């Protein structure tokens, strides 16, 4: 596929695609996709349903996703419902968004998740830790 800078493709609300989708530019999805998506940039509309893995440099999710998401820059809008693991470099989540899955921060510029400070290199919890993820809030 040629890289047509400045162009984008739209999958409308009346379109259902069964199979994997690949795009080299921005993809705007308002319809339903039953398959994996790989693209440079993804914008998902509120009524859209994606059943499959999503891989993009940047993604702005507003609809339903049943599958994992891997993105360098990820924005999850309040209308989004995600059922799957989320891998990101930078992440923004609006209040009201629903996510059932694990969040994993990636090492920027790679597909490798960042090493958790609570696990050893073999993936087991460090001594004295139950292995559960911890959340700290700034005061």
Poorly predicted tracts of residues: 115-120
Shape: globular
Specify the structural class. Answer: mainly beta
What's the story with the biggest beta sheet? Answer: 8 strands, parallel
SS strand fraction: over 45%
Mean pLDDT: 83
Compact overview of the structure:
Helices cover 0% and strands 45% of the residues. It is mainly beta.
Describe the structure.
This protein is an all-beta fold. Helix content is 0%, strand content 45%. The strands form two sheets. Strands 1, 3, 4, 6, 8, 10, 12 and 14 form an eight-stranded parallel sheet that branches. A six-stranded parallel sheet has the order 2-5-7-9-11-13, with no helix packed on it. It is globular, with a radius of gyration of 16 Å.
